[in-house]
Amino acid sequence: MGRRWRSRVCFADRGFLSLGEWLQSLAQCDQSGPIGSFCASIILLFLVVFLLGVAVYWVATVAHAVKEIRAITSGD
Q1: DSSP string over 6-75
Q2: How many domains is the chain built from?
Q3: Which domain holds residue 54?
Q4: Which pTM value belongs to this model?
Q5: Residue 1: strand, helix, or coil
Q6: What is the pLDDT of residues 21-60, one digit of tens each?
Q7: CA atoms 58, 59, 64, 66: torsion sign
């Protein structure tokens, strides 16, 4: 069991970038070529999805608060 876990860690160390290396490669994207524009579109997509998630969370929180306030003021 320990051996299998160790081999997966070694494979991950060889096959995948660490988070810092991945963020650094995204920060150094060149906008001039097709790979650079693809990279920029991926960054933009992540940003849009993140902001959309924040907006949905905020709307749900406000809606829940309004529902609670209405329940308190109506006496339920």
Answers
A1: HHHHHHHHHHS--HHHHHHHHHT--SSSHHHHHHHHHHHHHHHHHHHHHHHHHHHHHHHHHHHHHHHHHT
A2: 1
A3: 2-74
A4: 0.48
A5: coil
A6: 666 666 666 555 556 667 777 888 888 999 999 999 999 9
A7: positive
